[in-house]
Each structure stands twice: as C-alpha cells, then as structure tokens.
Amino acid sequence: MKDDTIRLPLAPAGPATERPISLAIVAMGGQGGGVLTDWIVQLAEAQGWAAQSTSVPGVAQRTGATIYYVEMMPMLDGRKPILAQMPTPGDVDVVIASEFMEAGRSILRGLITPDRTTLIASDHRSLSVTEKIAPGEGIADSSAVSRAIGVVAKREIVFNMEDLAVRNGSVISSAMFGALAASGALPFEREHYLGIIRQGGKGVDASIRTFEAAFQRVGSGETAVVPAATDLPSPAPSSAVAAASPPNLGPSAPSASSTPLTFEPDARLKPLLARLKTVLPTDARSMARAGLCKVVDYQDLPYGAEYLDILETIAKEDERAGGADHGFAFTVTAAKYIANAMCYDDVIRVADLKTRMQRRDRIEKDMGLRDGQVMQTTEFMHPRMDEVNGLLPAGIGRWIEAHPRLYGWLDRRINKGRRIRTYSLPWFLVLYVTGGMRFLRRGSLRHQVEVAHRDAWLATATRMLGRNYQLGIEVLQCQRLIKGYSDTHARGHSKFDKVLATIKLLEARSDAADWARRLRDAAIKDASQKQLDSTIATVKTFL
User: Fold this and answer.
1) Higher model confidence: residue 414 or residue 12?
2) pLDDT tens, position by position, 221-256
3) Which letter does DSSP use for residue 79 in this model?
4) Using CB atoms within 10 A of its CB, is residue 40 exposed (0-12), middle (13-18) or buried (19+)?
5) Could you tell me which of 401, 418, 419 has the C-alpha nearest to residue 410?
6) Distance (Å, rounded) from C-alpha 103 to C-alpha 146?
7) Which helix (H) or strand (E) holds 159?
8) What are the residues whose beta carbons fall under 8 Å from the beta carbon of 27, sequence distance 6 or more?
9) Crossing angle for the helix pair 270-279 and 282-298, nearest 10 degrees?
C-alpha cells in the first residue's frame, strides 16, 4: 500500500456539542469490539457526559461482524438526554471498522456520508466463509471499497491496525482507540483516553503501547490514504499458484513457480528428482518438483514414483501434440492437478493434518497466545459411513456397499456429530494413530475410486489434446472443482461430472475450449449449481 499524507487534520478538543455524537463500531469476535465500546462509554462518562451503547451480534465463522453503536452528549441542566439505540443512515459521526471489507459494508448500509463521517478502518483482510470455501479464487475484490472510501467519507484514517496491534502484543481495539484519539473526532484529551485504559487492569502495558503507536502513526501523517484501484497490485494468475502447500521435506519448501528451486532436498528425494530432470521438459520441472514433494509427503516414495510415471506419459503425449510450441503448458498444468488428485482428503489425511505441530503453531499465532497461557481446541467432527467405509480394504468395502441393510445400520451409528478436544491426550492419540495409517490407503476402497476417477479424467484430457491443445488444458483444470471431503467433495464430483459430460458434447467445435472455460467458471462460482445448469441448458440449445 502506498504511503501518502493523511487527509485528516488533527483537531483540538472542541466545545461540548448541542446534539449527540454518534459512533458505529464494526468488529469481529476476538478483536475487542466490546472492550472498545466500553472504553468509549467510560471516556464520555468520566467527562460528565451521558453515554449509551447497544450492539447487534454478528454471526460466527466470519459471516458478519457485530455492530456496536454509541451515542454521547453532555447533560443539559443536569437532565439526561434521550439517545438512540441504532445507527441511522446519514447520521453517524464516526465509523470504526476492524476489517477492510467491513468498512465496505458500512458504506453499503449508508452509515458513512461525505458531509459528516470520519472513517477509521484497518486495511487488512479477514476472509469470510464464502471466500474460503470457493473451489477457485474466491477472495472478494477490495478495489471497489478503496475507490468508494475517498468519495463517501468526509475524512478517513486507514492503515493496518491489526499488524500494528500484533507487533505491540495487543489486539486491534487498542489501535482503533489510539486512532480515534488522534483523529480529534471527540472533544477529549489524549490523557483522558490513557486514563481509561489504565483503569482496565488487564493487559494495560500492551494496550498502552498499541494506543501510543497508533496515535503517533496518525499524528505523524504516516497513515496511508487508500489508493485508487489503479494503484493496487494485480492478483497473480491462477496458473501460477503452487500445487497447494508443498511439504517441509527440506530446509526450504519448494515453490511451484517458474523460478528454479535452490533448496537442498531431502536425501530420500534425490533419486526421484534426478529422474524428474531426465523425463520432463524444462518448462514443467519446477511445478513437477512441488507436486512430487507434496505426493511423497502425503504417502511415500513409491507414490512419488507413481506420480512421475504418470507425468512422464503425459509429457510424451504433450510432445506428440506439439507441446514444444506451447511451452509444454499441458504438462505443466498436469503436474499441478495430478498431484492434487493424488492427494485427496480422506480420514487419514484429515487426522494427519490436525496433529501436525505446524497447525498448532498457526492456531497459537492467530490467537496471540502468550507465555504461560494454555490453549485447548474443541472441534466438531461429523464422519459419514462413506468416509469410514472408504478406509476399508476395497473388497470388504464393496461387500458392505452391496448389503444396504448392513450399510444403513452402520451409518446410523457412525453418522453423528462429535465434539472432540484435539489436544487432549486420548483424542490426540486417536488422531495421531489414524494419521499414521497410510499403509492402508493404497489398498482401500476410497483409493480405488480415486484412481478410477483420475485415470478416466486424464484419458479424456489426453484424447482431446490431439484435437484441440487448449481444450486438453481446460479439461485438466476441471480438477479444480474437486476439493475437500465429505459433502464438499461429493458436490465437487457432481459438478465435475456435469461439466465434463457437457464438454464431451462440444469437443468437435472450434470454440470448445472457450465453452469449457465458461462451464468450469460457472461451476466454481455457483454453490447451488443453478448458474451451471443454466449454462449447460444454453449449450444444449445449439447442439
């Protein structure tokens, strides 16, 4: 983000107002929105003002933030004023947003107006549920908010308050309180704000450090005014995305970009990496290295050798189809999506990931865990019979599926939600042992099903490659539709089957690749599949 001089002049503490001063605060759980609201109310009351706060709770899991509303004004002749309980569009003096898209939501609600409102917002992002679950790139474009802020707000203070708070050992509410103090939007002195923090008794030192850092940041004019959309960096193309988090098998995890790898690999991988250099074109080696590391981490070295066997066959087909003229794009794409297909999420994988130290470290970092504090996580797990049966040897799993009454009886006992404490000794041992059962995977029913899907998908892509090079690549990228496990995985497979069946109807057309891309994009963006079904219906009208 570009650093510019803040447009907000610092105002001295002004006289008492004749109408209420209104503040709307939008904050997510764990960010101290309630604490910030209490601080503001205490601040006003300590100066002899009447103050009132209300809140409308948001929904869990980042589907919405809680809205806190504060009104304050001095008492007239000892009489308390009647204050409103909810913000009115066009009648809010200060909006404080703890996350950038929440600032955008405040604009949509009409809370921010150019003739009145001071906007104080953090420009960091906390992704919503809908952004996280999208099979493709689901992150919302924040450029519209960037453009709107400079138009709809009278004054704005926008910078990364979350980062500032973390660096000072506190939470974002302290940074927002400091920014509010420096804004001059309230007629109170800096020491009045600090006095309120000191009264809290908990985390006072960290809160004051964060308050002072935010106050100085605003006062020095170092706050970044939100840049126009043309100043924002362009997102990387989806084709450059790595093959989904390569594992830590060496001192440095490999990148799936075109930049050559410089890490010293694990000794176990050296024979496979040496083979990779001899059987694959140079353009595909970087992506293939990342895919190979992921596959070996997921299962074992023989599984990595199988990955190279498949990729070597793909590279030969690519060369026969004139891949050299296309930078071997088909092989590069295959290197990524074959690795993803081979590393499907099953019970073993989920248990393995939940017991890895890297996961616990990430959770502790996200929670801001301090020395001496103890963390315990409670997770909701809802295994289905499909998942448990898929873990069984293929023959036994098929036999159980062939007996519906037995299958239903088992499902009624397995298909129940459970709340487990991941890091309690009993449950951790259960998950750890389950995550170590990789030796069962390649003989399981689930693996047999995944291999059949993978082989059919690659056969279709390779067949279409000979007729239409770009169409073959589009078919490979349809694997993006399949992700996750349980119901998410089943929905992805349903979309994949619909898209691929329609592509087969179109393969003789010269514009088949364009239609394949439209079908895939419709499936990625549409959870209900209504848009996908509409696109398929459109295709069938001209067949």
Assistant:
1) 414
2) 655 444 333 333 333 333 332 333 333 333 333 333
3) B
4) buried
5) 401
6) 10
7) strand 155-159
8) 33, 36, 65, 66, 68, 96, 97, 98, 102, 172, 173
9) 150
Q: What is the DSSP string of 217-280?
A: HHHTT-PPPPPPGGGSPPPPPGGGS-SS----SSSSPPP-SSSPP-S---GGGHHHHHHHHHHS
pTM given for the model = 0.66
DSSP state of 267: G
Alpha carbons 8 and 442: distance in angstroms, whole number? 63
In whole angstroms, give the CA distance from residue 284 to residue 394.
Answer: 34
As beta bridge partners, residue 157 has 120
CA distance 2 to 95: 23
Beta strands in 310-385 (DSSP E): 378-381
User: What one-character DSSP code corresponds to residue 400?
Assistant: H
d(CA 531, CA 537): 10
Phi, psi at residue 354, to the nearest 5°? -70, -20
Convert the pLDDT of each residue in 43-87 to its tens digit. 999 999 999 999 887 654 445 678 899 999 988 777 888 888 888
The 3-state DSSP composition of the chain as helix, strand, coil percent (nearest 5) reads: 55, 10, 35
